[in-house]
Amino acid sequence: MRISTTLLAISAILAIAYGAYGSSLYEGAPPFVVGSIFKASSIVILGLIALFARSRLLAAGLLFGALGDALLAWSPDTFLYGAFAFLIGHLFYIALFLRSGIGVAAGLKRPPRLIGTIALIIAAFMMTSLLVPSDNAMFVPLSVYTGVLTLMALSSFTLSTTRWLVMAGAVLFSISDGFVAWNMFHHDPDPTLAYWRSFAGWMIYWAGQAAICFGALGLHKASART
């Protein structure tokens, strides 16, 4: 546990440092090698925590997320490859959550989870329609990605209530995706506001991944409890 806590602290420091200074690494022409490594580093460490806990599905989800971070930062030409890497990571999360949860039918019978499910679905539709221009070539692939991300978040609602941290992390991950689309398609002319918007989106994303990581530790061997 001490090792995991130490690695979490290192991951948090790297995440904050990237959020604060990472934008300075994207000057000139791509590929942005240093930026890619720096961006992925904090999530790679979370993946190591999952590997040390022998949670292979969790580790795979985190490490594919790290690969997605690196590809998003590498070059504008590799953006969709990064989204695809994230999509694969979500599939690993979904497999872990559904295998360890109380079941979709049982989850939907509980009002708070049902309300959360409806709210997430509505938010996903609104986020896509409002933030991603429908005439943009990325509208369809990003809509598919958002659908899989939403399924990942919804699958977390099938977990035991003792795994609330995973559910919170999945929701934060979904929120951070909105920041990505907002920053990508709606540039802020004020550099200060643009900086803080980017920083907030990145830290929400990292917090989501960290919450999923620590909330799901041991999930691969624990039976679901209501």
Please explain how this structure is put together.
The chain is an all-alpha fold and 226 residues long. The protein is 76% helix and 0% strand. The radius of gyration is 17 Å and the shape is globular. It has one domain. Helix 7 (139-156) runs antiparallel to helix 8 (164-185).
What is the fold's blueprint, element by element?
Layout: H1 2-21, H2 33-52, H3 56-74, H4 79-100, H5 104-108, H6 111-131, H7 139-156, H8 164-185, H9 191-215
Helix pairs in contact: 1-2, 1-9, 2-3, 2-9, 3-4, 4-7, 6-7, 6-8, 7-8, 8-9
User: What's the overall geometry?
Assistant: globular
What is the number of helical segments per DSSP (H or I, 4+ residues)? Answer: 9
Q: How many β-strand runs?
A: 0
Helix-strand topology string: HHHHHHHHH
Q: Mean of the pLDDT scores?
A: 93
**Whole-Å distance between the termini?**
25 Å
**Broad structural category:** mainly alpha
Q: Tell me about the biggest sheet?
A: none
Rg result: 17 Å
Portion of residues in beta strands equals under 5%
Please give the share of residues in helix.
over 70%
Ranges where pLDDT stays below 50 over 5 or more residues in a row are: none
| Total domain units | 1
